[in-house]
């Protein structure tokens, strides 16, 4: 058990549980995934999962390195939040303008975004959400405590990043299952537009909080 105690902090079970429960709460990343996975399935959404997980990993690294400085720079936090709002409004508008079409392999292959674009979209969605930074800061400080070692922080960070990636891949794989695709085939455009409306609502909510605090 001693090697495990070197790698995992005593509060690791609480950290893992709190992180997974947070994943179950749908946020902008979830609706972005649904909007793309419903049309492009796994091959058109796997890059999004990788980008989102990478963005989470970057915020975890920043939390380890002392991301608490963000709390002393409210202007920086405001800038990131507003950029995130604009990003959500842009992605939401793209989904709202999606055209009706049936789910066929040829259609999905011809319009599917490339892997690089998928990764950038997912990375932007994750990094332009400053709540991710504060969430990981709280987990890595309040839960792990001041006695946590750098190795334990690194192991915890790798665990959380891997869980984000695996969970998002499970979501898009589930949406890509044939029987689910058959059920979605006639309502794909409305699902995409619903995802777009939700993303726009997230963006408008951020702007509203700054205009009318």
From TrEMBL:
Glycosyltransferase is among the record's keywords: no
Ranges in a coiled coil: none
Predominant location: membrane
Location(s), subcellular: Cell membrane
Keyword Cell membrane: yes
Keywords: Cell membrane, Membrane, Transmembrane, Transmembrane helix
InterPro entries assigned to the protein according to its UniProt record, in alphabetical order: LeuE-type
TM region(s), chain numbering: 12-36, 48-70, 76-96, 157-179, 191-211
Membrane topology field: Multi-pass membrane protein
PANTHER family: ARGININE EXPORTER PROTEIN ARGO, LYSE FAMILY TRANSLOCATOR
Name the UniProt record assigns to this protein: LysE family translocator
